[in-house]
């Protein structure tokens, strides 16, 4: 029941705004589909009377439940990578070394100059 409440809260607070931003859509759609499948199979486990269908539903629910944490971690990692304002290739950011002595020297000169 708690999972249904959390998923219901995620729809207006996270899913809809993220879908409009058009970032990480594939992984988000995968997570939403997996969560919906978990909900449907949970109801199936509760209401299905047939032993054959119940066994298949149980197997599917277990497989989805095991895949969920892995896909959640991948979804968060992908979202952070896509939304990150920092360039991923740090060699471009730090291409030339900074000379500390030049920076400190110019700062002390500026401090000594009269205003």
Model description:
The protein is an all-alpha fold and 115 residues long. The chain has one domain (2-84). The chain is built from five helices and no strands. It has helices at residues 2-21, 25-47, 51-83, 90-93, 100-112. The model has no long low-confidence stretch (mean pLDDT 82).
The portion of residues forming beta strands comes to: under 5%
| Main sheet summary | none
Order of helices and strands: HHHHH
Kindly state the number of beta strands: 0
Shape: elongated
Number of helices: 5
Helical percent range?
A: over 70%
Residue-averaged pLDDT: 82
Q: Any low-confidence stretches, pLDDT <50, length ≥5?
A: none
Report the span from N to C terminus: 69 Å
Q: How many distinct folded domains? A: 1
Structural class: mainly alpha
Task: Work out the radius of gyration.
Answer: 26 Å
């Amino acid at each position: 029941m708690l999972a249904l409440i959390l998923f219901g809260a995620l729809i207006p607070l996270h899913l809809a705004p993220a879908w409009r931003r058009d970032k990480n859509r594939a992984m988000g759609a995968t997570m939403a589909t997996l969560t919906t499948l978990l909900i449907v199979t949970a109801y199936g486990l509760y209401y299905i009377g047939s032993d054959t269908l119940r066994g298949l539903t149980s197997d599917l629910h277990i497989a989805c439940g095991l895949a969920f944490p892995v896909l959640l971690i991948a979804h968060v990692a992908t979202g952070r990578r896509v939304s990150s304002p920092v360039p991923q290739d740090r060699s471009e950011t730090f291409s030339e070394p900074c000379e500390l002595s030049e920076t400190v020297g110019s700062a002390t000169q500026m401090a000594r100059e009269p205003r």
